[in-house]
Inverse folding.
């Protein structure tokens, strides 16, 4: 959505089980990889209203994915509340379980 030529970023929300008590992501992957993934999530949030999301099928219908090397991010987008909800971050082989 555009206002005065400035894109409004969607708010990023992480599922509770992804966060530790301090509100930090508690996934056990290298910090540099996690930082890159977080940067990609933020980039998508900046243009979520026009971004071409990669939607999943079957049991994960309604969810989207971000591919990042051997890792995946499973998220959903709510265009009404302008939010991206991050549901899972992990290795490609186990993130879809």
């Amino acid at each position: 959505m555009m206002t005065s030529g400035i894109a409004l970023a969607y708010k990023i929300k992480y599922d509770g089980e992804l966060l530790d008590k301090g509100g930090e992501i508690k996934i056990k992957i290298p910090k540099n990889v996690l930082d890159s993934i977080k940067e990609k999530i933020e980039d998508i949030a900046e243009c979520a209203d026009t971004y071409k999301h990669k939607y999943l099928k079957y049991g994960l219908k309604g969810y989207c994915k971000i591919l990042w090397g051997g890792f995946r991010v499973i998220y959903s987008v709510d265009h009404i509340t302008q939010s991206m909800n991050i549901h899972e971050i992990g290795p490609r082989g186990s993130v879809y379980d």
The first helix runs from residue 31 to 46. Residues 1-5 have pLDDT under 50 and may be disordered. The longest strand covers residues 83-91. Strands lie at 2-3, 6-7, 11-14, 54-55, 64-68, 71-78, 83-91.
